[in-house]
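ok so I'm stuck.
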Amino acid sequence: MQHHWKELIAVDRYTVQSRDVLHEVDRKVLTLLYQPLIGCRALALYMTLWGELELLGGQEATHHRLMALMQCGLPDIYSERLKLEGIGLLSTYVHAPEVDEPKLFLYELRPPLAPDQFFRDEMLSVFLRRQVGRRLFIQLSNVFARPFIDETKFTPVTRSFSDVFSAVPAEQIVAGFSEEDGPVPLGGNEHTGRDEASYALDDDVFDFELFFAGLSKQLVPRRAVTAKVKEAIKKLAFLYGIPPLEMQKIVLGVIDPAYHIDIDALRQAAREWYELEHGGVEPRLVERVQPLAYRTMEHVKPRTKEEQLMKQLETISPRQLLKEISGGVEPSLADLQLIEDIMFQQQLLPGVVNVLIYYVMLRTNMKLSKKYVEKIASHWARKKVRTVKEAMELAKEEAKTYQNWANEKEKGTRTVRKVVRTEIVPDWLNMDYSQPEDDDFDVEQARKELEERLKKYRDES
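replied:
not stuck anymore, here's the structure
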C-alpha cells in the first residue's frame, strides 16, 4: 500500500480503549467466525490491540512499538486496520495538533457480535458459509447455538427501578459528588450494544427513492419502514441483488394488517425470491452487476469505443466478464475467490471491479496477479471510486504508479530485462511506457480479443 504514509507514519502515536469488557467468548467468536472473513493478519492486529489495552493502560506509544509487536511493516498494519474498521471491530480517531507534528490515533476496540446475532445477520452468516463451506458452517453454528425461547408467550413481570429502590432526595444526590469528581457526563458517546450489527453499509447500495416512489402509502405507510426495517432491506438487497421494484413486492407480501413488517419474515421472503431467481444457488458477490444509481451510461447511447466499453462494464457481472475473457470457459475458483474477496473487503462495486479486471488483464499478460489486484483495489477503495467512469479515469491518471507496482512485483520474481518500446493500449488508458512482464505479449492484440469477446456477449444478450 504505497500511499499509507499519507495517513500514517511510524512516529505517529496511538492509544487503545474499549467501551466494553472483552470476554473469553469474544475470543472464540473472533477466531472461529470473524477470522474466515477478515483473515489471520487482521485478527492478529485486533488481538495485539486487545493486549495493548491492558499494557498501555491509557498511555501513548508510537507505531514503532506496534510494528515490533507484530513483526510486520506499517503498510500491513494500515491495511489490516481498514479491514477491522470495515467489519465494525474497530473505530479509529485521529488528532493532528500541528502540521508536521506526529498525529495521535485513538483505537477503540469494538466487541464482536454475540454468536446468535452473528448467525442471524444475513450478510455475515452467508459470507461465512461461502468462506468455510457448508459442513464447517453447520459445525460452527451448532457450537455457538443457543436455545431460543419465544418471549411473546410469557407475561413480563420484571420490576422497574422505582419499584425496587426508594427515591433519593435531590440534595443527597448532589452531596454525593465533590467538585474533584468533575462534571457528570450527559448523553453523547452512547454505545449501541452487542445486539446491533456494528458494521454499516452505505445508503446508496439501494435506491430507496425508487422503492418508495412505486409503493402505495395506503398499503405500506412510511412509518412501517422503521430504521431497523430500512437497514434490513438495504442488507438483503445488497446480499441477494434485489432491485427496488422487486423489493416492493417482497415487502407487500410480509406486511401484516397492523402495518408491521416482521424482519425475519422479510429475510425469509428475500431468500425465497433469490432461490426462485437463481435455482437455490447461494448468492455470490461476483454475480452482481453495477447498481443503477452508479451507472453513467444507462440512458446514453454510446458514441465512441470508450463509451461502448463503459456501458458493457456497467451491465456485466465480474464472473461473466472473466468467463468472456476466457472465451466462454468458467473462471477458476482462485480467480473468483480473489475477486469476491476484494469486493467484500474493499467494498468495491461490480462495475469498478470490472474495470480493474480489464486493466490488470491487459497489463499482466491476461493473468490476475493477487498482490497486484489487491494493491490497486485498496487504492481505489481509499479514493472512494464508485463508477466505471471514475475507475477508468483514475487508471489513466495513476497508470505510471501502477506500472511501478507491477515492476516491483516483477523484480521480486526474476531479473528485469531492459526493454523499452511503445505499446498500443485502449484509448481510455492512453499510456506510453515499457512492457511490464512478457516482451512477447501483444497488448493491442489482447485488447482486440477482449473487445471481440465482449461484443459477442453483448450481441447474444
